[in-house]
Amino acid sequence: MTQFVDIGALEDIPVQGARLVRTAQGCIAVFRTADDRVFALDDRCPHKGGPLSEGIVHGTSVTCPLHNWVFDMNTGAAQGADDGQVGTYPARVEGGRVLLDASALPRHSAA
Amino acid sequence: MKKKLVIIGAGMASGRMLEHLFDAAPDLYDVTLFNEEPRGNYNRLMLSPVLSGEKTYEEIVTHDAGWYETHGVTCRFGEPVVRIDREAKVVHTNYRSAEYDALVIATGSAPFIIPVVGKELPGVVTYRDLEDTHAMIDAGIAGKDAVVIGGGLLGLEAAAGMAARGASVTVIHLMDHLMERQLDPAAGYLLKKDLESRGIKVHCKGATKAILGHERAEAVLLEDGTVYPADLVCMAVGIRPETRIAVDAKLEVERGITVDDSMRTTDPSIFALGECVEHRQQLFGLVAPLYDQARVLAQTLQGEAAEFRPVQTATKLKVTGCDLFSAGDFADGEGREDIVFRDPGRGIYKRLVLKDNRIIGIVMYGDTADGNWFYGLLKDGTDVSEMRDTLIFGPAFQGGGAPDPMAAVAALPPEAEICGCNGICKGQIVEAVQGGATSLDAVRAQTKASGSCGTCTGLVEQVMQFTLGDDFTAAAPACMCGCTDHSHEDVRRLIKSMGLKSIPAVMQELGWKTPGGCHSCRPALNFYLLAEWPTEYRDDRQSRFVNERNHANIQKDGTYSVVPRMWGGVTTPAELRAIADAADKYDVPMVKVTGGQRIDLLGVSKEDLPHMWADLNEAGLVSGHAYSKGLRTVKTCVGKDFCRFGTQDSTGLGIRLEKLLWGSWTPHKVKLGVSGCPRNCAEATCKDVGVVCVDSGYNISVAGAAGMEVKETEHLASTPSEDEAVEIITAFIQLYRENAKYLDRPYKWVAKVGLDWVIERVVDDLAGRQALVERFELSQSVYRKDPWAAHSTDRERAKWAPMADFTLEAAE
Ligand SMILES: Cc1cc2nc3c(=O)[nH]c(=O)nc-3n(C[C@H](O)[C@H](O)[C@H](O)COP(=O)(O)OP(=O)(O)OC[C@H]3O[C@@H](n4cnc5c(N)ncnc54)[C@H](O)[C@@H]3O)c2cc1C
Ligand code: SF4
Ligand code: FES
């Protein structure tokens, strides 16, 4: 079952930027696109662990700040010649609030 | 006996519903219609023409007294319903009550008012009904200042209406571009340009902080400190469903009153429609779906089965002269493809978003003639793969013949204009080609076609190809990135010559092929724009690489290093103590002296950065920019005060240069060195700019490198005067800022333009040198700011931490 929890206001995430959500199993980066959609991805680049939350967001892609791998935020798949995958989590915006699928959070998986 | 139908709200939706109901079953109900406004149904959409003076209220009334009388409607206008008694099936106003068998709630929505200081001052209005419209008209705003907060559909209509009445209007919009829900940045940019051309000021990325004034509104203050004078302030920042009476009656209400497919609420005798409802988690703010609801509800009230199924709606802006059209979903996404067409000369932009060969989104600006045709394809889910190549040209190019872009070019008459900037038509290009111009450059040289903004290059090439056949091969231009065919040099030149002042402006006017660029062009554009228009352009933080965005250097494990600035490499015991204290307090795992004579605090977490900066700031230390494409360090030797060989005050000169140049953004990092004698202890001759002091003065050399490539500097100038040395160096840096390609270090750039060209400008041409220095200083008046100070405030600090933390809950 997906159960969405409120993690904060959309406004708290810069347009074309990201904020982190900390979980016991590592950080999740929550991105906001130029057209106010949100995507949640693991904050670790599969290449060498770069923090994706600090990458440049373009369209629905993000470029890792360390060595420029590009990931499609819809699927978490690396683009182009690079081969890699990051975990994605259901996220949405409702009434200006950002909601994240709680079942993805360790609180639940640990229980 | 007729059944009793009570309706709360005489708006667009209930008006349409009554028409359907009386058409089909005139005798089914006795209708009582309550309305809070002291009038019956009118066309709310037409308030804007009333505001602008193109229409009067009488012209927009949809149901007059005669109509209500003919249909036996009991009108209770100016009487809001305050309570619904579901048990007794009665509604109450403050004067009377009315019984019902069936009740319809159609209360619309209420404008949202942002909770800022001054929001209740006289002179602050919303935009929803005739009263609001009259408030704006009656303010007698001709010649006065008006501010509209909110750059969406409503706000822009209000702005255009007041401007038409002679007010001087400014629109404040929170987001990056206008109407962001309906338009993408490119179309938003064109709209802004249109509005500005009619004298409406537009301030995007503007957050309202307060409305200032004593007796009444006088001005609007923004978070960034901007103040706009305002005799009238119109808030048009959004609406929320008007659900209060439904909530009080304990009907199920989420964001709107919950209804099922037949428009029934959780009480079987109560229905709702219009902007006040929520249907399958969706709210509605445009009339098209509300009219569908009206039809469904009229049938439901007659006991017929009907289902409301929302369809995609299209939006147009009712501002005369602003032609825009938007429908569906135009965001980027997986498996989505864009077809983008831009004609900068005529201010036209069209974008179709396709998925699985079907149109799912449409944004058009400037020429919306084909909007409805595209919209039809979208609604029907038509497979467009057959006409894909010519789809964007609209229905005129479909059907018959093969959908071949070459055929489209071949079909153009000789007088068809190809290059809008220079007015070159197809015939002229064909002539040039037949006359022997077989390369694009040759055609460009002869006809000027594609020589200005260059967006018609593809079209010119098609004409050439059609004329030359297989003999033609298009040259591959060294373009900036996959988003554009232009080179860096072209883009720089065009930003200047066309006066482009924002990233969306560049993308639109120069025909970017992606909707929003990529990680490689955005930082470059951001730099070019701020170098060209230092006082007008606003830095786009999200187009910056992480080091510049976070004002610290990212390390391989995602932590940062902090390098406080030490002017010329000189420090004091007090500064060292502050650095040591910060290192202790934030558990810095390593403290290291850098190659540039500064102290590096390695391994700081992002969250700690603003706190650490605040501490360092307090000790008088500022940002090191040890990470930016800007001046990094000026390395110095000890110079004549202490060294027995020193000829000049090399340390002092280094400090002076660093204080002068810090904070400026450059195409790539810039490092300087100043040595006091040719022994060169500061290793000045492998820097971007090196000064070696000698008995007779200062030897300035440039374009060294000690990175991937190692290269000695080349001699630029010698001068006896320290002041002149500083001036020449400043001019050199500015020339580099104005001309180099993003990410070219000075040695690469000098190799391209030639050292002689540089010497001519910064050494020989005195007036030119001074002009360069002046432009540098102008830019520094804006950009020489300590970013640490700006980001270590309490308000900012919160943004550096995670927005939510679930580790604590997990531990419980
Ligand atoms: C200036 C303007 C321009 C617009 N332009 C467009 C456009 O171009 N295209 C488009 O699709 N849409 C446009 N809209 C939106 C459109 O007008 C609305 O979607 C539509 O009017 C909603 O209809 P409704 O019947 O739900 O509510 P409304 O038309 O708002 O009617 C609700 C009525 O209920 C009354 N009411 C509220 N509470 C009570 C109560 N307790 N008792 C009695 N009466 C009550 C209100 O006074 C109001 O008269 C525009 C809106 C405005 C304000
Ligand atoms: S460069 Fe010359 S002046 Fe400077 S420290 Fe070395 S020897 Fe002394
Ligand atoms: S760590 Fe992300 S690209 Fe190398």
UniProtKB/TrEMBL annotation, chain A:
<keyword id="KW-0001">2Fe-2S</keyword>
<dbReference type="GO" id="GO:0046872">
    <property type="term" value="F:metal ion binding"/>
</dbReference>
<dbReference type="GO" id="GO:0051537">
    <property type="term" value="F:2 iron, 2 sulfur cluster binding"/>
</dbReference>
<dbReference type="InterPro" id="IPR012748">
    <property type="entry name" value="Rieske-like_NirD"/>
</dbReference>
<keyword id="KW-0534">Nitrate assimilation</keyword>
<dbReference type="Pfam" id="PF13806">
    <property type="entry name" value="Rieske_2"/>
</dbReference>
<dbReference type="InterPro" id="IPR036922">
    <property type="entry name" value="Rieske_2Fe-2S_sf"/>
</dbReference>
<keyword id="KW-0614">Plasmid</keyword>
<dbReference type="GO" id="GO:0042128">
    <property type="term" value="P:nitrate assimilation"/>
</dbReference>
<keyword id="KW-0408">Iron</keyword>
<protein>
    <submittedName>
        <fullName>Assimilatory nitrite reductase (NAD(P)H) small subunit</fullName>
    </submittedName>
</protein>
<keyword id="KW-0560">Oxidoreductase</keyword>
<feature type="domain" description="Rieske">
    <location>
        <begin position="5"/>
        <end position="100"/>
    </location>
</feature>
<dbReference type="GO" id="GO:0008942">
    <property type="term" value="F:nitrite reductase [NAD(P)H] activity"/>
</dbReference>
<keyword id="KW-0411">Iron-sulfur</keyword>
<keyword id="KW-0479">Metal-binding</keyword>
<dbReference type="InterPro" id="IPR017941">
    <property type="entry name" value="Rieske_2Fe-2S"/>
</dbReference>
UniProtKB/TrEMBL annotation, chain B:
<feature type="binding site">
    <location>
        <position position="643"/>
    </location>
    <ligand>
        <name>[4Fe-4S] cluster</name>
    </ligand>
</feature>
<feature type="binding site" description="axial binding residue">
    <location>
        <position position="681"/>
    </location>
    <ligand>
        <name>siroheme</name>
    </ligand>
</feature>
<keyword id="KW-0479">Metal-binding</keyword>
<dbReference type="GO" id="GO:0020037">
    <property type="term" value="F:heme binding"/>
</dbReference>
<dbReference type="GO" id="GO:0050660">
    <property type="term" value="F:flavin adenine dinucleotide binding"/>
</dbReference>
<keyword id="KW-0411">Iron-sulfur</keyword>
<keyword id="KW-0614">Plasmid</keyword>
<keyword id="KW-0004">4Fe-4S</keyword>
<dbReference type="GO" id="GO:0051539">
    <property type="term" value="F:4 iron, 4 sulfur cluster binding"/>
</dbReference>
<protein>
    <submittedName>
        <fullName>Assimilatory nitrite reductase (NAD(P)H) large subunit</fullName>
    </submittedName>
</protein>
<dbReference type="InterPro" id="IPR036188">
    <property type="entry name" value="FAD/NAD-bd_sf"/>
</dbReference>
<feature type="binding site">
    <location>
        <position position="681"/>
    </location>
    <ligand>
        <name>[4Fe-4S] cluster</name>
    </ligand>
</feature>
<dbReference type="GO" id="GO:0042128">
    <property type="term" value="P:nitrate assimilation"/>
</dbReference>
<dbReference type="InterPro" id="IPR016156">
    <property type="entry name" value="FAD/NAD-linked_Rdtase_dimer_sf"/>
</dbReference>
<dbReference type="InterPro" id="IPR012744">
    <property type="entry name" value="Nitri_red_NirB"/>
</dbReference>
<keyword id="KW-0349">Heme</keyword>
<dbReference type="InterPro" id="IPR052034">
    <property type="entry name" value="NasD-like"/>
</dbReference>
<dbReference type="InterPro" id="IPR017121">
    <property type="entry name" value="Nitrite_Rdtase_lsu"/>
</dbReference>
<keyword id="KW-0274">FAD</keyword>
<dbReference type="InterPro" id="IPR006067">
    <property type="entry name" value="NO2/SO3_Rdtase_4Fe4S_dom"/>
</dbReference>
<feature type="domain" description="BFD-like [2Fe-2S]-binding">
    <location>
        <begin position="480"/>
        <end position="529"/>
    </location>
</feature>
<dbReference type="GO" id="GO:0046872">
    <property type="term" value="F:metal ion binding"/>
</dbReference>
